[in-house]
Amino acid sequence: NPSRCVAQVLRSGSKWSLGSKCERSIYNTMIRLIDNSEKMIYIENQYFVCGFGTTDDDYDEDRDSESP
Fold it and tell me: Are the C-beta atoms of 15 and 21 separated by less than 8 Å?
């Protein structure tokens, strides 16, 4: 059915806002959606950050604590 649309809404959280050590649900969901896409995918995010070429070892958990 060409008029069918599936959408998922996510909210971010971090050490400063939720007290969690490292919150990656949005990142993990975006990766899953990209991996499972069949034709195309549209992602809109005003805070889009690229971690291309980095590994989990490069992730700085204290970076989130600098946000307001």
Answer: yes
Count other Cβ atoms within 10 Å, centred on residue 64. 19
pTM of the model: 0.40
Q: Give the helix, strand, coil percentages of the chain, each rounded to 5.
A: 35, 0, 65
pLDDT tens digit string along 2-21? Answer: 677 777 666 666 666 666 66
**Are 20 and 13 a contacting pair, CB within 8 Å?**
yes
User: How many CA within 13 A on the CB side of residue 68?
Assistant: 0
Rounded-to-integer distance, Cα 38 and Cα 26, Å: 20
